[in-house]
Amino acid sequence: MTITRDNLLTLEAYAKIRKSSAPEVIAHRRRRTVRLGEHITLQFEDETTIRRQIQEMLHIEKIFMEEGIQGEIDAYLPLVPDGSNWKATMLIEYPDVHERKRELARLIGVEDRMFVEVEGHARIYAIADEDLDRENDEKTSAVHFVRFEFPPAAKQAVRAGAQVKLGCDHTNYPAHVQIAPETLASLAGDLR
Hints:
Layout: H1 11-31, E1 33-36, E2 40-45, H2 47-61, H3 66-76, E3 85-92, H4 97-106, E4 114-118, E5 124-125, E6 127-128, E7 143-149, H5 152-159, E8 164-170, E9 173-178, H6 181-188
Antiparallel strand pairs: 1-2, 2-3, 3-7, 4-5, 4-8, 6-7, 8-9
Helix pairs in contact: 1-2, 2-3
């Protein structure tokens, strides 16, 4: 299934279920979130998370015209995995403004040093910010969009239950973590 104008809820229908469906969506998003060290979080997107994001944007902006709805779909649809990859929103979080400014300057290029490592396979490095021109010599952005493209053998291994690590080998942010079984089970569904 894919997200189209015809299978989105109307503003009225969404308003009726918005609050009652929130806990389920929050739990789904939490299951698909991986913290890497203290300051980087990856929220792995799928059709459920992106559909909710589109519905939220339509709701908040009160968009009901066909052209506007299609614009939101076109903006967010590239973030839905297509069967051979994982796609994620990468957040770099430092609560203190001065520390954030300093660390974002130290972390230039961190988005390109993110990887997933499937047990028994070579690291798969992130392809970052494909649709954006983000060359900034002074600091990296606090939000990136990354895609991990799986070779067929690694994809099969994940679907067969192999362990997977998420990591970063940037000089100023070396970290890795085993992806939890519940999260990995959800992410494995993206590889079909």
